[in-house]
Amino acid sequence: MSLRHALLGLLAQEPASGYDLSRKFEGDLGRYAWQAGHTRIYPELVKMAEEGLVAVETTGARGRKTYVVTDVGRAELRSWLMSPPDNATVRNETVLRMFLVQSLEPADARILLDSIAEHCDAELARLRPLMADIDRAAGTDGLPFGRLAGEYGVRQYDAVATWARWARERLDAAEAAGRVGTRAVAETG
Amino acid sequence: MSLRHALLGLLAQEPASGYDLSRKFEGDLGRYAWQAGHTRIYPELVKMAEEGLVAVETTGARGRKTYVVTDVGRAELRSWLMSPPDNATVRNETVLRMFLVQSLEPADARILLDSIAEHCDAELARLRPLMADIDRAAGTDGLPFGRLAGEYGVRQYDAVATWARWARERLDAAEAAGRVGTRAVAETG
DNA sequence: AACTCCATGTAACGTGTTACATGATTGC
DNA sequence: GCAATCATGTAACACGTTACATGGAGTT
């Protein structure tokens, strides 16, 4: 039930409508933490309101409903954050590709690794200036919401880019030595 | 449909039964790439066999069925690996916690960040010797299946541990300056 | 004989995605 | 008036988890 806690966390930061929340998932939150569309968010908010975790604060134009966290909701969020389970849910398609890169032919693996490195570089080029702007505006003593998460993204992409380049070198070395411990997946037909 | 490609990738490496495959998901694959239980794997293998992506190689004792990838399956795996989508599926409970750490009171956030750093240290202590063993056995020119993925894990945990310590420092600095840009989630009742 | 591990499966439920549907408001 | 955006929802489907069920083979 992570969606519910994601919503609680966002609402703990500031009251928002289902529409607002669904757009937050389109940003960095959805990019590397958790994805959810409005079709899932709306019913979940209704359910959470029924359970007393959130409440409708205002009803505005176009049927807009603004939700706020209740004390019960805050307690639930804190309890969830403070007790991480041993086996957290992880489902990452990109990491899966990294696992399976060795089932490709070396030539294909090289192309894939290069494209991963480039993709990470592009994300870094987007994120780094953003973080610098935040620090410039708030100073290194300020800590706007999202700054820690953004930094996580930077370090994450940096690590993956470095990994991809390391992996390519290992692959090259293995191929030069004539022993790529893999059963290649060649194109057929 | 990532499960299907995960299965294809594992079977491309070596033929296996549904039981074998389900146990592979219990290791590092499930720990940081993709999770799946046997109850999902068995029906998926049946479906993939119907579609000609895999085939039953042998039927052994206790009804054991060993699957192999077909040429069609290999082509499908290659095609999937070589065309990564713009918005890959990402669902990571731990990263979500990192996003929401700023909705905790500084004292709680500090405890959480410390526990994240410790958890990463523990994983590193487990993985690093494993990778060293592999390199010792295969040499730096050898590349056993899983070596690249294992290295990804090492770099990943290292990055998160460093991030957690950095985040703690930023949090300390912000609190010292008396401005933690967060609405704290305190315990109630 | 009892226990554990191997090995496969079904059914119910929870969660997430895609497609469909509706209507208000704002900017041009 | 038209298009874009805001704003909410439902229904069907896909995917994943938990609980339940069964039985063979090896070990003590």
Q: How would you characterize this protein structure?
A:
- Two copies of one chain form a homodimer.
- Chain A has helices spanning 2-13, 18-24, 28-32, 38-50, 71-82, 93-100, 106-138, 147-176, and strands at residues 16-17, 54-59, 65-69, 90-92.
- Chain A is mainly α and 189 residues long.
- The first copy, chain A, has a three-stranded antiparallel beta sheet.
- In chain A, helix 2 crosses helix 4 (38-50) and helix 7 runs antiparallel to helix 8.
- The longest helix of chain A is centred in the middle third of the chain and has 33 residues, at 106-138.
- At the A-B interface, helix 1, helix 3, helix 5, strand 4 and helix 6 of A face helix 1, helix 3, helix 5, strand 4 and helix 6 of B.
Percent strand of chain A: 5-15%
Determine the structural class of chain A based on helices, strands and strand pairing. mainly alpha
Q: Kindly report the greatest chain-chain contact and the residue count on each side.
A: A-B, 86 and 86 residues
Helix count from the secondary structure assignment of chain A = 8
The total of beta strands of chain A comes to 4
- Provide the succession of SSEs of chain A: HEHHHEEHEHHH
Helix content of chain A: 55-70%
Identify low-pLDDT runs of chain A.
Answer: none
Question: What shape does the CA trace of chain A take?
Answer: elongated
Mean pLDDT across residues of chain A: 90
Oligomer: homodimer
Rounded to an integer, what's the Rg of chain A over CA atoms? 22 Å
Strand order of the largest sheet of chain A: 1-3-2
Measured between the Cα atoms of the first and last residue of chain A, the distance is 45 Å
> For the report, how would you describe the main beta sheet of chain A?
3 strands, antiparallel
